[in-house]
Design a protein that fits this description.
The complex is a heterodimer of chains A (205) and B (235).
Chain A (H helix, E strand, L loop, with lengths): L22 H14 L6 E3 H11 L4 H11 L6 E3 H15 L3 H7 L1 H8 L7 E2 H7 L7 H11 L6 E2 L1 H47 L1
Antiparallel strand pairs in A: 1-2, 3-4
Helix pairs in contact in A: 2-3, 5-9
Chain B lengths: L2 H47 L5 H10 L7 H4 L8 H9 L12 H10 L1 H27 L6 H16 L3 H9 L3 H26 L4 H25 L1
Helix pairs in contact in B: 4-6, 5-6, 6-7, 9-10
Classes of the chains: A mainly alpha (205), B mainly alpha (235).
């Protein structure tokens, strides 16, 4: 999923550590929400929500419906600002490649979102439905249930889910470190090659 | 009288004059500097609030307008002996101002009661307006019709505007707390989204449904607001 470049959400900045928006950004977002709230009910209905998400992202219709059902936890058929804010943060986290960090920081509300039945357990089916929101691959999902389903009931409870988020953050940090080292190594190598070429040139003359 | 005594007397008079000038300078310089700084600030605020007016244009307008306080004393029936009394007059003449005041007037007066700085700023403005009026009176006495009355009233109103009501767009931005380009971006985007939503409304619940009509009205209002903003920024 990608945010549309140049759209309003594209200009918001999600804090990299706490995965939250600044107060100034939230104020702008409130203003934006009020503009979208045509019927002055402090909420967006499904049609407005669909067109909003369709305009700012490249999500498909079925995916937007899934997101709407997920956010409309009180089954009012409308999305209030709290849920809207949550969605925007998820979109921005994905845009800035902070999915793991975001899940780790806000594990409780995300667990609540994924837990559609309210039985405090996450099934593989539900997880699979929402994996596009956090860029989780199929293989990763299989590994997740294989490694973290400690109780063996094919469901994740909150503690198991929390463990998964901690593990995925560690993994993401390691990946970042490895990438950094790789780029540093590349830089050093290129510098060394340049230096050796220069010395060869000098010897030749 | 001996020439040495005369010279000594002359030196004494000169010394007296110089010391008097020094004392006067020491007393008045801080006030003058303060007044200059405040005037500069007001001018800068005005220029910032009205980006369409250039610095040179404002300078030309001020040059073309009557002298603010230079010939103040001459125009008064009772000339003021001391420059300092001008400040007192300015402060006292607040209530006598015949310039129509904006709605923020009461609030400003309250502020001026609470803060001495606010009072000073106000009196500076009052001095300017007062000075303008005295010069006007003088030109009327001379039968001088060269300066049109509209120009003077414009100066008055511009001074008033600069103090009380900043540029509309600037004021809106201050109140809103959001930068204007961002608001424009938001409005344009929302307008696009809502236009698409209106099409869906029409096809699904019909044109005559009250929700469709509400959305239509909202879009119209949004378009009007955008148009107004464009007009303001263009002017």
């Amino acid at each position: 999923m990608r945010l549309q470049q140049g759209s309003f959400l594209w200009y918001l900045y999600l804090d990299k550590i706490y995965c939250l928006l600044s107060v100034r950004n939230v104020r702008a977002l409130v203003e934006y929400f009020h503009m979208l709230d045509v019927h002055r009910r402090n909420s967006l209905n499904d049609v407005l929500f669909y067109h909003f998400l369709h305009h700012v992202t490249d999500l498909k219709k079925t995916q937007i419906t899934v997101v709407f059902d997920m956010l409309d936890w009180s089954t009012l058929g409308e999305i209030s600002f709290d849920q809207f804010y949550m969605l925007v943060c998820i979109l921005l986290a994905q845009e800035s490649h902070l999915e793991e960090q975001f899940m780790y920081r806000h594990s409780r509300p995300i667990f609540g979102l994924f837990d559609l039945n309210g039985d405090l357990k996450l099934g593989a089916k539900h997880f699979h439905m929402f994996r596009f929101l956090f860029n989780i691959q199929k293989q990763q999902l299989r590994e997740l249930f294989h490694d973290f389903d400690i109780s063996g009931d094919r469901h994740l409870n909150y503690n198991e889910f929390k463990l998964y988020t901690i593990f995925s953050v560690d993994k993401a940090q390691e990946r970042q470190k490895a990438e950094k080292e790789k780029s540093l190594l590349k830089k050093k190598m290129s510098q060394q090659v340049d230096a050796s070429q220069e010395s060869l040139g000098k010897n030749g003359t | 009288m001996r020439s040495t005594t005369l010279l000594a007397l002359l030196a004494l008079v000169l010394l007296y004059l110089v010391s008097g000038a020094l004392v006067f300078r020491a007393l008045e310089q801080p006030h003058e500097l303060e007044a200059q700084r405040e005037l500069g600030e007001v001018r800068e605020k005005f220029l910032r609030a009205h980006p369409c007016v250039s610095d040179q244009d404002l300078g030309l307008l001020i040059k073309a307008s009557p002298e603010p306080s230079g010939r103040h004393g001459a125009a008064q029936p009772k000339p003021h002996g001391d420059v300092r009394s001008l400040w007192t007059t300015a402060t006292l003449s607040q209530a006598q101002l015949d310039v129509p005041l904006s709605k923020d007037e009461d609030a400003d007066e309250d502020e001026s009661d609470a803060e001495p700085e606010g009072l000073e700023e106000y009196s500076l403005l009052a001095l300017e307006t007062h000075g303008g009026r005295s010069a006007e009176a003088k030109s009327a006495e001379k039968g001088d019709d060269v300066k049109p009355a509209t120009e003077k009233s414009f100066l008055k109103s511009s001074l008033n505007v600069l103090k009380h009501t900043p540029h509309q767009a600037y004021w809106e931005e201050l109140q809103n707390g959001l930068p204007l380009p961002l608001t424009e971006l938001m409005e344009n985007e929302v307008l696009e989204i809502l236009t698409k939503a209106l099409r869906s409304y029409r096809s699904s619940i019909g044109r005559d449904h009250f929700l469709t009509k509400e959305l239509e009205r909202y879009i119209e209002g949004l378009k009007k607001r955008r148009q107004q903003r464009l007009c303001v920024s263009a002017s």
